[in-house]
Amino acid sequence: MSTTTYYLDMQHPEQILGKPLPGDLSVVECRHKQFQLNRFLYQLVGTPWGWTDKLGWSDAQWRELVEQADHRTWVAYHQGAIAGYYELLRDAGGAVEILYFGLVEAFFGRGFGGPLLSHALQSAWAWPGTTRVWVHTCSLDHPSALANYRARGLQVYREEVTP
Known about the structure:
Elements: E1 3-10, E2 25-29, H1 35-46, H2 59-66, E3 71-78, E4 81-90, E5 95-103, H3 113-126, E6 132-138, H4 145-151, E7 155-162
Parallel strand pairs: 5-6
Antiparallel strand pairs: 1-6, 1-7, 2-3, 3-4, 4-5
C-alpha cells in the first residue's frame, strides 16, 4: 500500500478561514521551554497515527529541537485536560512550519480541530517576520486532517506518493 504526503501552505494571513475557539477550549503557549513536555505531547497525540520518527530520540536531540529560539509550542486544554497541541518552527527566511499539530484521541469529533488549527495559523502569522506558513500531512493521518487544512485556507502545493 502506498502513502501520499501532502504539502500545504499559505502565503498571506488574509487567507485564513478561521473558526473561533469554543469557550471551553483554552490554548496556552509554553513560554518556558521543556523538551520533556514536547516529547510527552508527541507521544500522546501521535501514537494513534504511528508517529515514530522521534521515539528513539535522546534528551539532547529533544532539547536541541525545542530549545532553539525559532521553535514554539502551544497546548490546548478542555476542562483541565490536554486536548491537543501544536508546534511551530520558523526557518531563517521566515517560513513557519506547523511542525506538529493534533488532538488527543479522547477529543476527536468534538469540533476542536478547526479552531485549534485556526489558532495555529493566527499564531504563526502573528510571529513578526513570518513570510509563509506551511504544513505537511499524509494519507495515514486522521481522515479529516487534509480537509481541515484546506478548510482553514491552506492550499496543496505538492503531493508525493511513496510505496
